[in-house]
Amino acid sequence: MLSFDPIWLTLELAILTTFVLTLITIPISYWLTFSSFRYRFIIEAILNLPLVLPPTVLGFYLLLVFSPNHWFGGWIEKLFHFRIAFSFFGILIGSILFSLPFMLQALQVGFSSIPKTHINTAKVLGKSKLEILFRVILPNCKPAILAGMILTFAHTIGEFGVVLMIGGSIPGKTKVTSIAILEEVEAMNYHSAHIYASVLIVISMIVLLVLFRYKRSVSMVFAEKD
């Protein structure tokens, strides 16, 4: 019998990943865009490493770190009586790290597109960095933030390698839709695999339609202003 648990688990993972990344990448993108730190390009390269790394490589090293045999994973398990590997929390961490560059890139583009006159004017008026961020930068970066959220959500829905390496395939805990498709194909249950795949296609298409529709609306607004 076809289970819809992988679909709900996939949506939960995508929503939580998008939410967490939205919170943590705003201050990171702000610092990377406006900081004068000489070696920030090194930090930027490290944060964007998942873009070029195979998902299985990232998943493999995260699995080693989260394993009870590793000092970190063992310490977490002894302290909190909780094992990160092969848990939903584990695949959430992996998903956040793997999708981080997508949100980060979108926000950096948005932050760097803000005219410096806006920021300089706010400084002249005595606004603090925090006030500049919340009253000048973020209101002008809504399109970039939304684009980053949509891309992150869409990317997370299709994740496979990282999730499989860290979480395996535990029904109701780590078995997301992409893994369910693989297992159904291996079992030659093509009808079930088709249903799972079709759901992902529909969700992905809806997400992309929202993204491009919003981009078109924003472009029309700016065209009218010009």
Automatic annotation (TrEMBL):
Parts of the chain that traverse the membrane: 6-33, 45-64, 84-104, 144-166, 193-212
Keywords: Cell membrane, Membrane, Molybdenum, Transmembrane, Transmembrane helix, Transport
MF (Gene Ontology): molybdate ion transmembrane transporter activity
Membrane topology: Multi-pass membrane protein
Principal location: membrane
CDD domains: TM_PBP2 (cd06261)
A GO cellular-component term linked to this record: plasma membrane
Pfam families linked to this entry: BPD_transp_1 (PF00528)
Source superkingdom: Bacteria
Domain ABC transmembrane type-1: 7-211
Family: Belongs to the binding-protein-dependent transport system permease family. CysTW subfamily.
Role noted for this protein: Part of the binding-protein-dependent transport system for molybdenum; probably responsible for the translocation of the substrate across the membrane.
Full protein name: Molybdenum transport system permease
Species of provenance: Leptospira terpstrae serovar Hualin str. LT 11-33 = ATCC 700639
